[in-house]
Amino acid sequence: xxxxxxxxxxxxxxxxxxxxxxxxxxxxxxxxxxxxxxxxxxxxxxxxxxxxxxxxxxxxxxxxxxxxxxxxxxxxxxxxxxxxxxxxxxxxxxxxxxxxxxxxxxxxxxxxxxxx
Amino acid sequence: xxxxxxxxxxxxxxxxxxxxxxxxxxxxxxxxxxxxxxxxxxxxxxxxxxxxxxxxxxxxxxxxxxxxxxxxxxxxxxxxxxxxxxxxxxxxxxxxxxxxxxxxxxxxxxxxx
Lengths: 116, 113
Prior knowledge:
A: mainly beta; 7-stranded mixed beta sheet; 4-stranded antiparallel beta sheet; B: mainly beta; 13 strands; 0% helix
């Protein structure tokens, strides 16, 4: 069974940092592109970032470029999102998802709250 | 960026009746060399992550009931639920994956009348 489990969310002050993790199991992680998508409370979905299976290709939404860094450790079957210079508007549930284009599997998400 | 719009914002349909959701993209998501539309549909139930229903605009994901179907090409797409069931109450999103940044529509909430 495909499983994606996010962790690392929490309450952080504006300007602070967090690192999210996504532990994958049930599939060959190293063969798949992975993505991060976020959803502000009561709002719609926003694509954040994408990384190729070998880490060789990375893309970001303009609103997070220069502040967020996506990475992966294929030996640990884990996807990461390093988030720096956090703003109130980054408050959201962050989902990791499998897939290069459409997202075929999603985790349950981890909540990031940016507030003083 | 490709802007996705959906209509209606919400709709209430009687059990067993048809529900139709429209999605439009600000530019074509049809890639001519392979004649594929780079569009997916997702269902999100309260308190749950989204789940893919349709990709390539009309290909149903494995395990998705055949009452869900997708159609359209270029800039205009439709998700149809042919006979609404109680478990279909959810918000439905379209997403283009033609180019990054990938973008989602604002969502359509489907309820039971």
